[in-house]
Specification:
Helix content: 40-55%
Number of helices: 8
Shape: globular
Number of strands: 10
Order of helices and strands: EHEEHHEHHEEEHEHEHE
Radius of gyration: 16 Å
Strand order of the largest sheet: 2-5-1-8-9-10
Strand content: 15-25%
Largest sheet: 6 strands, parallel
Distance between the termini: 17 Å
Structural class: alpha/beta
Length: 208
């Protein structure tokens, strides 16, 4: 595993912040130099709570790139979708600075994990969505899902959107933290695993 990967989830509470940190830690344990980046942070002022969570899970101090905001170049104060948070703060979303930050990280680290804000269809503007940014820069996707009731529907919709735009699915990570109903969780896990195997044979299905 090398390069830049975009980590998204089936919804805001899929657990992608924790999965991003855990994946970064596992890659570090394999000897890779890893950085995480927050695509767009909402609900904060001058710092990213998600980046801070990544570092705690990774077991490391804040990186130099955290301190100069390279890992979280766009932060809005209101906890809402990107386009609404930007409108509330009276600012535009600078996609160029996000891409430049990713490029800087990619030049310094073996792997860069870019954690998205919400799901793939979160709007950045009225006619441009997170998935459009991913497609524009041809970023392979790591999709985080779980066993909550309704997750199959949300997961398949995300996977269909990925396929319709010709985006590479690198892996689906099933977050076992939400396995409160064993029957539903088991069926969800197995169904999504079969779907990925049939429609994305080059992608991996991982439980974490």
């Amino acid at each position: 595993m090398n390069g830049v990967y975009f980590i998204s989830g089936i919804d805001t509470d899929a657990g992608k912040t924790y999965i991003t940190g855990m994946l970064a830690k596992r890659l570090m344990e394999k000897g890779l130099k890893v950085a995480t980046q927050k695509f767009i942070q909402t609900g904060n002022d001058t710092w990213s709570e998600d980046i801070e969570a990544h570092r705690k899970i990774m077991g490391i101090k804040m990186l130099p790139e955290d301190l100069d905001h390279t890992t979280a170049p766009v932060i809005f104060s209101y906890p809402a979708s990107a386009q609404l948070a930007a409108r509330i703060d009276g600012r535009d979303i600078d996609l160029d600075i996000i891409k430049k930050s990713t490029d800087i990280l990619a030049s310094r680290y073996d792997v860069v994990l870019v954690e998205g804000a919400g799901g793939l269809m979160v709007p950045i503007t009225d006619d441009f969505f997170t998935i459009d940014y991913v497609a524009r820069y041809e970023l392979p996707i790591i999709l985080v899902t779980n066993g909550v009731l309704g997750s199959i529907n949300h997961t398949i919709l995300s996977l269909e959107a990925i396929r319709s735009r010709g985006i590479k699915l690198f892996s689906v990570i099933y977050n076992t933290f939400f396995d409160n109903d064993r029957i539903i969780a088991k069926d969800t896990r197995e169904f999504i695993g079969r779907y990925v195997s049939r429609h994305f044979p080059d992608a991996s299905f991982i439980e974490m």
